[in-house]
Design brief:
The structure holds two protein chains of two kinds. Chain A is mostly helical. Chain A contains 32 helices and two strands. A two-stranded antiparallel ribbon of chain A has the order 1-2. Chain A is globular. The two termini of chain A are 27 Å apart. Chain B is mainly alpha-helical. Chain B has 14 helices and four strands. The chains are: A mainly alpha, B mainly alpha.
Chain lengths: 796, 266
């Protein structure tokens, strides 16, 4: 970190010190002016009026006027620069989570503030936190949640995130209460309620930092979703619990709590949660509906999204419901529809803006954490702090193993002990816990300082120690070969097997369907989409756009010489030179590097999520590249009039990408395909069925004009195409060849993309076609939004 | 009229609905229950009754698809799978898994012709952007056949069944090696390289695979030297090609059992 910061360090320090000097000066100034002009309302005027009234001052300094935004801006800038430094360093990001960096920056700022005796601006108070800092963070994680795996694992996620938070909160609270009863520790004045409250705030885990590790280690999707779901729901549950307990504490000050109140509290917990979700869903639908009409004023689209999410939060808070759950639900609900409605640029704006807002919020909280770490407002009690730390771990272990033991009974694919260990270990506390502790009302909690200190210790412990070691742990448990001394063979074969496995998994399909999901899908297609989604452009334009894109890319490929180097190189065997010279280890190393860096990544089903950054979409590029290369190999083999040398036309079967007829398929064919189209498998993002159709000659001729190349039948038959187009099934290969030569001359068999319209009715958007996503990446405004969420080509 | 294609609807790992699916331990009704409701897609859209979950129908033979599916000509019954018992013995799949695969098979078979063609597999979107997609499809169609029937489908997938330790210990040594043994898994990977089936990966074959798997940034010269090196590294007898034994030797340190197993294929 220090190394990363070095380029920026001196500069920052100067800036910071200058600032602080300035404000010292200005506060001096103010002190003097305050005495002279006590009745002035605004400090600004005070500063100005400190000069003799009759002359206009040439130079005045008014730091107080800008202090808060000025310092906040500096903090954020500092944090951003630190992040740049952090990522310039190659090894650091893999070593520790980014929250470590933020905390360190915060501690640095805190040290500076403490060292210069400066008083930090009151950025964080209860209303600022709950009204401005928290919503963006929650909105971001709700919006970037991978919807499909979340709902597929909904039961387990709710069970674990909901019950886990409660179990932790009460477990930690109660056990700490027992500890407090020991007179030797001097904690006798902490009541049960206060302990419970502390338990609720300390149990708000923020395991997002761990997600980055998971992604790198490619843990299974279920595990990923458990952690993500916990990160998503935990805040909401903790905050609800926190608020209820605060209310109880207030009540307790004046009167006794009766059992009825406790029951009411439980009921309230449920109502607050469900009510929040309800309002969120409502507002999500409203905003989705409104974005349907924004095509002419697309600049307003991001605004609609943000304002409605915020409105859902505010409305829920007005009614004392959980705003966090409301905004989460709102984001989840509208995401699906909004993304289809808004233009590509708006979509990008929304994504980046969301990341930006949430990272600002989080930076501020972390910096505040650092600032309050270094200062005099601490109370250290060994017993309380150590027991907090221990109980946090113990109760997390208990809740993980108990809850997963139960939920495993109901799962087809249970969580292994390893998975559970990883979940246990990922209990990293974050900004949420600190904020809640920091915002405890001092009047009700005389030992607030102790709570804050204990929270800080837990956060520091979990973020630094667990956050840094979880990566090695995951790798260790995963028994992954971290041995760098792999031979090239192993490197290559491993990747091949990964691809093979992924491919066979796709053939098997995803085996996790259930009825609720299907019902929702039907309902969605029948009603929701019709209401919420913009009427799309005629499909033929989509098709033509695809063609255009295809041509463009083909031209680009040819220009960049890729085509010639890849496609023409098939018969290289003849020129093979026997080189038996030994290669130096450096050469081998460089070869290995080339392979590691350039081999195609195995497709991931889970979307990659990074709290602090939007990943560039390599997978999308890769998919495009693979498609284009295949098509090119096919074209080459076509031109040469023979298939690939080995008699196995490896590239020839992908003709379906080649030609895209312009007109719509025959209605009859379409109906038939609706009937056929039964694979509701959400996982493997089927290509839209592009099937062969026998056409009336007129239409075919018309199509032919649009199709630059007519597909040679030979290669089709070689490729083992089923006799879809009217040939007899048992015609011998030779006959096929003969016929197909003739077939080249007549435009009969052509390819059809099934109309997207029906695609979008039949398939949920998660099953969007691979090529569709390619399209939508670039042709978003015109493209059916349906195509935009393919899990295959993660855009997030 | 087309037979409705049955959609697989196996148990969701996450639902709280009880899914008593422990592979191989139960037969018939229990497993049916565990694997959830199987509905013909079309029928589900028609009558309300069609969306009902099928009732358990009294053990092995008597199960019927629940609901008023007028078109349920291809029901989800395990007994409809031809040679279900011998397939189970051969592949080691549990009955529930076979049933799932059966439904998947028919879901892939869009036109209801009873076998799979290459086209059917090519329709799988994720496979289309798999750099090895074509090779993988090829491996489902051994010996240049054009049709893939259900037993063939299952036999290929059986290579990816996770290795069961206890089962491995109890195995009769006289029986042939199960399809999911380490050697068979390796052999499956090997035949992705070995296009001409001569039992050797030639330099050319290696180069072809590399070309498929490496992005366009790498030049052809680099690829060729990598292919040379790869063959050289594994080639022990100096014939300029990698035989299966050499291939297995090169990978002897790797956990093939884990690398080539798919969790869901129990």
């Amino acid at each position: 970190w220090a190394r990363g910061l070095v380029p920026f360090g001196p500069w920052n320090w100067c800036l910071l010190l200058a600032t602080l000097q300035c404000c010292e000066a200005s506060s001096e100034l103010n002190r003097s002016t305050d005495s002279s002009a006590q009745h002035e309302l605004h400090v600004r005027f005070a500063a100005a009026s400190s000069q003799p009234a009759e002359t206009i001052s040439v130079f005045t300094l008014d730091y107080d006027y800008v202090q808060i935004p000025y310092e906040v801006t500096l903090w954020i800038l500092l944090a951003s620069l630190a992040k740049i430094g952090f990522h310039l360093n190659r090894r650091l990001p893999g070593l520790m989570p980014e929250s470590c960096l933020l905390i360190l920056v915060g501690a640095l700022v805190g040290a500076v503030i403490f060292g210069t005796d400066h008083k930090s601006p009151p950025v964080m108070d209860s209303s600022v936190y709950f009204l401005y800092l928290l919503p963006p963070i929650v909105l971001e994680s709700g919006y970037f949640m991978p919807t499909r795996p979340f709902f597929e694992n909904l039961g387990s996620v709710l069970w674990w995130a909901g019950l886990g938070a409660l179990l932790n909160a009460f477990g930690i609270g109660l056990s700490l209460y027992l500890v407090c009863q020991v007179p030797a520790f001097g904690l006798g004045d902490i009541s049960l309620l206060q302990n419970l409250l502390f338990g609720s705030l300390i149990s708000a885990v923020d395991p997002v930092a761990v997600l980055a590790v998971f992604e790198e280690a490619r843990v299974n999707e279920q595990l990923y979703m458990m952690i993500f779901g916990e990160a998503l729901l935990n805040d909401g549950i903790s905050v609800v619990l926190y608020n209820i307990l605060i209310a109880f504490t207030k009540m307790h000050k004046y009167e006794d709590i009766e059992p009825v109140d406790i029951l009411a509290g439980c009921a309230r917990f449920i109502i607050v949660g469900c009510g929040g979700v309800f309002f969120g869903v409502i507002f999500g639908f409203i905003s989705a509906f409104i974005t349907r009409f924004t095509q002419n004023i697309s600049a307003i689209e991001p605004l609609i999204v943000f304002m409605f999410s915020y409105l859902s939060y505010l409305v829920a808070e007005t009614l004392y419901l959980s705003g966090i759950l409301a905004i989460t639900a709102c984001a989840v609900t509208m995401k699906k529809y909004v993304e289809e409605n808004v233009s590509q640029t708006s979509y990008t704006t929304i994504k980046y803006f969301m990341k930006m807002l949430s990272s600002i919020s989080e930076t501020l909280i972390f910096i505040f954490m650092g600032v309050s770490t270094i200062g005099k407002n601490h109370e250290w009690n060994w017993a309380f702090i150590c027991f907090t730390l221990v109980f946090c771990q113990i109760w997390r272990a208990i809740s993980v193993f108990a809850l997963f033991y139960v939920s495993n009974q109901f799962r087809t694919f249970p969580f292994s002990i390893k998975d559970q260990c990883v979940i246990f270990y990922s209990g990293v506390r974050g900004a949420g816990s600190f904020s809640l502790a920091f915002l405890l009302p001092l009047s009700l909690f005389p030992r607030k300082k102790l709570f804050v200190t204990a929270t800080l210790v837990v956060i520091y412990f979990t973020v630094f120690i667990q956050g840094i070691t979880v990566g090695p742990l995951v790798r260790y448990l995963d028994v992954r070969k971290t041995n760098k001394k792999e031979s090239i063979n192993e490197e290559l074969h491993t990747r091949l097997m990964d691809h093979l496995k992924a491919g066979v998994e796709d053939v098997c399909g995803q085996w996790s369907h259930y009825q609720v999901r299907d019902k929702f899908k039907k309902f969605d297609h029948k009603y929701l989409r019709k209401i919420l989604i913009r009427k799309n452009l005629p499909k033929s334009s989509l098709v033509s756009l695809y063609k255009k894109l295809e041509m463009k890319q083909a031209i680009e490929m040819v220009e960049s010489g890729v085509l010639s180097s890849t496609a023409f190189s098939a018969p290289h065997q003849a020129q093979r030179t026997q080189e038996t010279k030994r290669l130096s280890p450096e050469d081998v190393q460089s070869m290995r590097d080339i392979l590691t860096r350039n081999m195609y990544q195995v497709r991931q089903r889970t979307l990659s999520y990074n709290k602090y950054n939007l990943q560039p979409q390599t997978s999308e590029k890769q998919a495009k590249e693979i498609l284009i290369r295949r098509r090119n190999t096919f074209r080459e083999s076509m031109k040469k009039g023979h298939s690939l040398p080995q008699g196995k036309p490896a590239g020839t079967k992908n003709i379906r990408y080649l030609s895209f007829p312009y007109s719509n398929p025959l209605p009859a064919g379409r109906d038939m395909k609706v009937a056929e189209f039964t694979d509701h498998d959400g996982s493997d993002s089927e290509l839209p069925p592009i099937t062969f159709n026998t056409h009336s000659p007129t239409e075919s001729i018309q199509e032919r004009r649009w199709t630059p190349e007519v597909i040679p039948m030979k290669s089709l038959h070689r490729a083992g195409m089923p006799p879809h187009f009217g040939y007899g099934r048992n015609v011998s290969q030779e006959e096929h060849l003969g016929r197909s030569r003739r077939a080249i001359l007549r435009p009969k068999p052509l390819f059809h993309a099934v109309d997207e319209e029906f695609e979008s009715q039949e398939e949920s958007e998660e099953e969007a076609a691979a090529f569709g996503s390619l399209l939508s990446a670039e042709l978003r405004p015109g493209a059916d939004g349906n195509l935009s969420h393919s899990p295959l080509l993660q855009r997030k | 009229m087309k037979p409705p294609v049955v959609r697989a609807r196996p148990a969701d790992p996450a639902t709280l609905r009880p899914a008593f699916h422990s592979p191989g331990s139960r037969v018939g009704g229990k497993e049916r229950r565990g694997s959830g409701a199987w509905l013909p897609a079309k029928a589900a859209a028609f009558g309300p009754g069609a969306t009902r979950r099928p009732r358990l129908g009294g053990g092995r033979g008597g199960q019927r698809l629940g609901g008023s599916s007028a078109m349920g000509s291809r029901s989800s019954h395990a007994a409809r799978i031809p040679d279900v018992d011998s397939l189970r013995r051969e592949t080691g799949f549990s009955q529930a898994s076979l049933l799932r695969l059966y439904h998947r098979f028919h879901a892939l078979d869009r036109t209801g012709k009873g076998y799979l063609s290459r086209m059917d597999l090519q329709q799988i979107g994720a496979l289309a952007v798999n750099p090895l997609g074509e090779r993988i499809i090829d491996s489902f169609f051994p010996d240049g056949s054009l049709r893939l029937d259900f037993p063939g489908f299952v036999r290929v997938l059986a290579h990816f069944r996770p290795v069961d330790e206890e089962e491995d210990g109890n195995r009769d040594p006289k029986e042939p090696e199960p399809l999911n043994s380490r050697m068979n898994k390796l052999r499956f990977a090997f035949q992705l390289y070995d296009l001409d089936r001569d039992g050797k990966i030639s330099r050319h074959e290696m180069l072809q695979v590399l070309r498929l798997m490496v992005g366009v940034q790498v030049t052809e010269e680099q690829l060729e030297s990598i292919a040379d090196r790869t063959v050289q590294e594994a080639d022990e007898d100096g014939d300029g090609a990698v035989s299966f034994l050499e291939f297995a030797k090169a990978l002897e340190k790797m956990n093939i059992e884990q690398k080539m197993s798919i969790r869901i294929l129990k």
